[in-house]
Amino acid sequence: MAVNDVLVRGLTYQEAALKYGVVKSTVCKWIKKATAFYQNEYIDTKSSRPHHHPNELSAETIDKIIALRKKLKRCAPIIHAHLIRDGVNISLSSVGRVLKRHNLVRRKRAHFKTPALSPISNAPGSLIEADTIHFARRDNSRFYIYSVLDTYTRLAYAEYHRHITPETSLKVIINAAQRFGFPIKVVQTDHGSEFGQSFYFSLQKQSIPLKYIRVRKPNDNAHIERFNRTLQEECFLFQTPSERLITQKLNEYLVYYNEERLHLSLSCLTPKEFVSKVLK
Q: Considering the chain, what is the average pLDDT of its residues?
């Protein structure tokens, strides 16, 4: 319309600028952009947003954020902690914006409160959660992984076994205590047969109380349930592991989990770093 007013109706640039509430230079730019068919042409006004910002993230940093997200599949605070460790000076909000801009964030899930556990986990070994993961073979028989987690330090331990028995469960707990490097004060499990009466009395002989979670309430053992899922996701990629290689893969993953994997609940420290800090 402004172009028509100038070229057809004879308005000056200044008059057209006053009519449409723009500056004179804007009308000049519209005239230059107009084609021979200017009568019915709509000319967009370019955004005044700058193409570059002096504090914008470099393409290399953005690529590194995306690569870490795809490799680790972890949240923004964990990715931010990895970048800081690598000497990249960046804010947590910037990491979050990059992930959101590239559609790499998950929808937040509803939070369900877990009932308070007794005793409270307030020191290394104060509450150990144990569980078993069941895998089916092609002939419908099963093999198992025992998983053990210290809820305070997040130190984890796991073993492969062809069978699960109360005797095996006790050996796993003893092996976990030796690997953790501190005494176990309380063990908490579900009501599986491998954690039955025989296991209960065997732990009592070791002066270790056994606490059972409520029936059909796996959230009471939320820490070990989450570790089991992480183990299957990151170590086995949600596939049935090969029994020939399972012990090797478990040992390699436990080194990574305890010594390299950052934990949000530990202020972005690894379990081993947190233990060293607590047991100084």
A: 89
